[in-house]
User: Fold this.
Amino acid sequence: MVETDQKLSFSWHWITTPERTSHVTLTLTPDADGTATILVLHHEQFADQAARDGHQNGWNSTLDKLETFCAKEQ
Assistant:
C-alpha cells in the first residue's frame, strides 16, 4: 500500500527464505515546525524472536546510515 507522501507498506523476505515473510510499514510525517520529516518504521510478523532481533539490528544500522547521509546533504 502506498499513500503518497505519507505511507509505504510492503511484505519482506530474504531471497534465501521466501517462506519467512514479514511486513514493513514506513510512515512519514512532518515534524512540528515543518523543517524535517519523521520516519516511523514498523516491522512485524516475524517467524521467531531471533528473526525479529536480527532485523532490529539491521534496521537500526541502516537508519543510522540514512541519518548520516541526510545530514551531509544539508
In short: The longest helix spans residues 49-73. The longest strand covers residues 22-30. The chain has one helix and four strands. The helical segments are 49-73.
